[in-house]
Amino acid sequence: MKTAGLHHITAVTRDPQTNIDFYQQVLGQRLVKTTINFDDPGTYHLYYGDYTGIPGTAMTFFGWLRSVQGKVGIGETQAVAYTIPQNSLSFWNARLKQLGFSPMHVESRFGQEVIPFIDPEGMRLELITDENLPHIEPWQGSPIPQEHELRGFYGVSLWLDEVETTTRILTDVLGYESGGQEGDRYRFSVPGNAPGRVVDLVHKPNTAAGIFGASSVHHIAFRASSDEHQLEIQQQVRKMGIQATQVIERHYFRSVYFRTPGGVLFEIATDQPGFTVDESAENLGQTLVLPPWLEPRREAIEANLPAIRRSFPIEVTS
Question: Which residues have a Cβ under 8 Å from the Cβ of 201 and sit 6 or more positions away?
Answer without folding.
Answer: 158, 160, 163, 166, 167, 170, 185, 186, 188
